[in-house]
Amino acid sequence: MAFRVSAVQYHLHTISSFGEFAAECEHYIRTAEEYGAEFILFPEFLTTQLMSIGDEQGNALTIEDLPQFTDRYRELFAGFAQKYAVHIIGGTHVLRRNGKLYNVAHLFYPDGRIAEQAKLHITPAEVEGWNMGAGEGLEVFQTDKGTIAMLTCYDIEFPEIVRMARAKGADVIFCPSCTDDRHGFHRVRYTSHARAIENQVYVVLTGTVGSLPTVDLMRASFGQAAVITPNDIPFPPQGLLAEGEINGDMIITADLDLDLLYRVRERGSVTTWRDRRTDLYTDWT
């Protein structure tokens, strides 16, 4: 079993309408389709670009305004997934539930289904600047290409939650991210490699590039997409199937071979998942 994934280094910039946002998203999707991608990953906080549209007075919208785009966002990406017969991880979008804001990753299936995974770990800036709430539970998602999980940015920095995803059967972790400087970017990138090694899974990572000068907390981005593997002989020595150019407006594409992943788990140079010492430390089984 193998399938092709594309990760979008989405270029944030000021726009004037929802239609402009839709056209730009479709451009990336059509590009990935031309490469034969079966899964397409967009970055975290993708829809904050809509805040730059502004109100009638020309002021940028606030995070409290973003949920008003939910229906249009979901309809747009569900339509793209069906039109192009691909799975789309549509980055994240901010939802309002019971008076609280949540940062939620969305999986759009080719048959029109939509699955959600709220971000589980919230950074201090997201709490202080946007009063963002944390999700309550982890799900994994069955697809016709295998079992996946969606863990957003800061989530990947916590080994326990990726252990849980692996224990639930996930072979691929899709990680939409948004970091504004090198420190944040490297935290997410380095821990993505660690999680791939620890759990013998693939990690597909991407982030925003560009900036939204009128939108608070989105005035800078530092991003690079990567398709990350365990570090073992059948894979590239650096554990990288593909990576983008830092801060470039582009897409990367790679093939994920699940059979190879399973063979490495059984007969690799190291078998980190099998060799866990659950007699010494608490772990998911």
From TrEMBL:
Keywords: Acyltransferase, Hydrolase, Transferase. It holds the Pfam family CN_hydrolase. CDD domains: nitrilase_Rim1_like. It comes from the Bacteria. This is Acyltransferase. It comes from Paenibacillus jilunlii. Belongs to the carbon-nitrogen hydrolase superfamily. NIT1/NIT2 family. The keyword Acyltransferase applies. SUPFAM superfamilies: Carbon-nitrogen hydrolase. Gene3D superfamilies: Carbon-nitrogen hydrolase (3.60.110.10). Residues 3-258 form the CN hydrolase domain. One of its GO terms (molecular function) is hydrolase activity. Signal peptide: none annotated. InterPro entries: C-N_Hydrolase, C-N_Hydrolase_sf, UPF0012_CS.
